[in-house]
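Incident log, structure service

09:12 report received: a user says their structure output differs between two submissions of the same chain.
09:20 pulled the input from the user's history:
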Amino acid sequence: MSVAEPFTTGSPERPPAPPVASAAPETAARTRPVSSRLLRSELWLIFGRRRNWAGLAVLAAVPTLIAIAVKVSPPGGGGGGPNFFASITSNGLFVALAALTVELPLFLPLAVAAISADAIAGEANLGTLRYLLTVPVGRTRMLVVKYAAIVIFAVAATVLVAAVGAILGLVLFGGGPVTTLSGTQVPFAPAVLRLLGVCGYIAVGLSALGAIGLFVSTLTEQPIGATVAIVTVNVLSFILDSIPQVDWLHPYLLTHYWMNYGDLLRDPVSWSGIADGLLAAAAYALVFWAAAWARFSGRDVTG
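09:34 re-ran on a clean worker, output below:
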């Protein structure tokens, strides 16, 4: 029996109930499965733009330059760069770690800032935000999808840097057991797993920055201005974290725990610093996504 048919109990005089029929489409609409079409569309928008491909190419160029430079001129023991540079010639995986260390303060955050700033402000600037919301797409669902795409991009950008560095490093310098920061050696396969853990940890921190970017993106219709604001927040956090006189502020800074990924390269792994970093990133992501939702849910979209 169809939902739209009148429900009878033996009384022929009982008329049909129109409200039941009219509520059926609404119930069906509420219970329909969630489609991934919007997320796929958002990912295509991010990874299909040539400017984003250019940005990813810049990220990949850094480990390439590091590998070639070290191959041409091996570093001495007293260099002032990251400690991973001195270990590159002993194992190619250190090219990936050196590249991540170099790119984490600026290049990777800049890439995430550009994507997150464009999430809402870019749509508003192009005039497509109003039409996107009339598809219809709920604002909460849109923010969830936008942030999910930012997280996916953060993971992809981090893995790209590590993968290019690891592949070139292994080709130019070989592999084998990896010497940890504790001075012990671990086999190659567990070392690769630790490198993937480093990528995951860094991507979580960048995703927290992406939540800040999503919030800033709801405040303006100018993606470039939003990008500058996000990068400024990131750089200011690094600067404040390096000033001993404000050490009371350090645990509350976004970037304070980012370098804790080195704890994954100790033997045994020091999980306390990793846990602190993940907790801080989750707190930032939750607070600023909620702020973005509060701002966007009440925003008058006219563009």
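09:41 both user submissions now match this output. Likely a transient worker issue. Closing.
09:42 reviewer note: The first helix runs from residue 18 to 31. The CA atoms of residues 194 and 264 lie 6 Å apart.
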